[in-house]
Amino acid sequence: MRFETIQNKIDIAKRLDFGSILDRSFGLFKAIWLKGFLMVLIMMILGFGISFLFITIGLIPNPYDVSESQQVGFFTDFYQSTFYNLPQTIIFAPISLGLLAGFYRMCKQADLKEPQDDDYFYFFKGNHLRKLLTLGLIYALIASVAQALFLFPYIYAFIPLSFFSVIFAFNSELSETEIVKLSFNLGTKKWLLAFGLIFLTGIIAMLGVLACFIGVFFTMSLVYIPLYFIYRDVVGFEDDDEIQLIGTE
After folding, report:
1. Average pLDDT over the chain, rounded to whole?
2. What are the residue ranges of helices labelled H in the chain?
3. Among 97, 122, 182, 184, which lies 20 to 30 A Cα-Cα from 158?
4. Under DSSP, is residue 248 helix (H, G, I), strand (E, B) or coil?
């Protein structure tokens, strides 16, 4: 789909129904929870591995080292953490974006009853990988700057940044700049809706703690699914018809 077409759909998007998206998110989660669990598990393993490597070679401080030399003020510690975590974020961002894009691709396959191949690393191949690296760098820089500006800018930027993987998953032929622009346009247009859905599903997903801590890994993928339906209801797919687009009013 062309950039101008998607942009126009975002500009003229009608109000979406919160309850409808939430209900469909639960329905899709029931069908795809195992794939979501594996995606979260892969992401966590790779994330811990990268953190361990960076701590081992001394690029970031050990978070469990509470020596007197590291007992600094809150703001000093906050900004030091933002600075030290930037290289780690730059490396991990393409990985998380690629895995999430693969997950959203599986969401579409399950939602539209398409043949499923369960390829978690689908976007780590060929030209996709180059775009992932660029998008990961942009993501890391924007997130770090927003975090350095403290709480509210980061909360605002979090929603458009969350759409990076959704836009990329279904429009990987677009340039990196176009993907970023569309993510911020869609994220800004549907910011309150997306924030409310992520907040509510995040609380529900955390109930996995009640089934021992590991239960969170099984429920956490629920948080990502509402963004898929926001994208589908606003932009849609080329094989969608009016009957399928039941989430718009």
Report:
1. 85
2. 3-11, 18-56, 74-111, 126-148, 151-162, 164-170, 176-189, 191-206, 215-219, 225-234
3. 122
4. strand
In this structure, the number of other CB atoms found within 10 A of the CB of residue 65 comes to 9
Terminal CA-to-CA distance of the chain, rounded, Å?
Answer: 23
Give the global pTM. 0.86
Q: Are 233 and 21 in contact (CB under 8 A)?
A: yes
Query: Shortest CA distance to 223 belongs to which of 183, 248, 186, 195?
Result: 195
Per residue in 195-237, pLDDT (tens digit) is: 999 999 999 988 866 666 667 788 899 999 999 999 999 999 9
Is residue 184 over pLDDT 90? yes
Query: Do residues 20 and 247 make contact, with C-beta atoms less than 8 angstroms apart?
Result: yes
More confident residue, 96 or 211: 96
**Sole residue written with tokens 């701590």:** 55
CA 110 – CA 248 distance, rounded (Å) = 20
